[in-house]
């Protein structure tokens, strides 16, 4: 079975491409490497030194004998995308190929427009490419739990049954995205849902939580296969950032009260969730939605866990409450369902001291690469 | 009070600009005239011969002594838009400046991408321009009833209170748009809602039904002020198209069974609704939603009404059921609320024989301009 991983040079994409290759799928990577360019533009860098995509893939083949096809180009250019589809003939497409940072989308108007045009046009092009080249192909699309916002009722998986004035229907779950990036994911979901209804395509929208961790079975095989790990104020996500801050004695940067509760998952579960989604394709004509996270924590919970794990390693960890650069509720109800993937066999890796130790150890190992000037948030939602 | 009408050269925009000017508002029109270009591209034309925007405005000034400012340019170019805001300093912005045809968005991939990029970027730019130049300014944005689709429960005005597992919240009404154009309007709503929450802007989303009619008090003053009237398969909406078909003895083109029920309103109510929205601005920080229609009809109801009106004028009208080029339910529940505008004083013009007569008479008057080759739908949702 042939799987095209779009955005296969990124944090989740690279880990997924190798995992699927390891499990016997024929894998092709599509990527325009723009994320590496954005790093340069912002003057930030992954904590872990990552090899070029060409070297990564060559080394993977040396180690395992498994070949990964590479298509370097921009999916917002339809000719390029069509060509990759025609050459590779995928039976599933995993789409990570989007601008994925909320702060990046909030830098200014240009970055908001870039994020939405890039993400919406890329996804539209993929939908047309599937329709025209392989209508049976299963699209596995990365969404985000942030599409839902923080409603005062339980968050279901994509749809909710509503009783209203004596009648009943099951409708798309209402969305309250919290940044222009999160809006772009909702915009995509609308297009994918429409394409499934009208053209009979099949798709799975994975509303993923915040991913943490650096190693998977495959990326841990060799230093040349190492995955990126971001800690900066634009691309760094909460737990990874906290561990790296702890390792260098920087206070953990909790935004506001830290009562913001979100869904989280280990990157080893990310790759497994994608594998499960591909192995159990959505029905023709349906957009299926899975909430892809394994545990819920508040940001302050996370900070306390990192503090505790630091103590056992002899690292003193302080917690700073910064003015929240985002506009979000800091105390709210949050109860999201995540049973669909568990029902299909996901065995979660729960966040444990062991994982925190390994993340902290990674951070200590590469501490010389940390740029202190990149740790604090520089993008304000209100600006 | 200064009102900037974006898209002021179009069907609803032109009628609104004149109406507001007549009511004493200082009016500026922003338009890139792309709709006239799309007509050329598709080889279609308005039934009524419309003057150039420059001649229209000059003639309006000659007749009434009222000046309308004109800014010709593309709102997806931020420099141009900013410049118009800085020069005009609006206290309200009415945004009609979008690609507004569902079939146009379904022609092919290029037209889908054009529609969404044009509409989403234009609206994003307006939000940034308001935030940067006039944060108190009230944005009145044209949405569409088609954002809701045809759910099996009552359609509320933008938000719905949901009780779920013993808890309750009022959330954005779930959307099931029926074309890439309708998706673009939902995409806009997400951005506007976000900008109101995060930046404290004020906006009104007018989810408008299908507009019919050609004359308003102002566009009827003189032939040089006449409004456009579209009857072609791409830009022509149901009732206008039916009247024009009736006038030349062409069978009415009902898609499928014709059981599709929608909200409708007279263009004289469109202009009055905009006036009401401007006179009663939304609260700072709020996206208010009004469903802007006055009556609900099925497409077949409309056809029968045109048939009856034709009879009284001695015109024999036949009804054809075409294969439905769209993907939509032809029998469904549809009950949408529309009390917000009525509560603010809207006095609806209901669809009457008199109105149908006047539309039919218009069609008869300009029958020599009708291009028979443009009447049938050429765009299929499934293609």
Automatic annotation (TrEMBL), chains A, B:
- TM segment ranges: none
> This chain belongs to which protein, by name?
NAD-dependent epimerase/dehydratase family protein
Q: What protein family does this chain belong to?
A: Belongs to the NAD(P)-dependent epimerase/dehydratase family.
Q: Which InterPro entries match?
A: Epimerase_deHydtase, NAD(P)-bd_dom_sf
Q: Which Pfam families does the UniProt record give? A: Epimerase
Hey, what's the signal peptide range on this chain? Answer: none
**Domain spans labelled NAD-dependent epimerase/dehydratase:** 3-291
What Gene3D superfamilies would the database entry show?
NAD(P)-binding Rossmann-like Domain, UDP-galactose 4-epimerase, domain 1
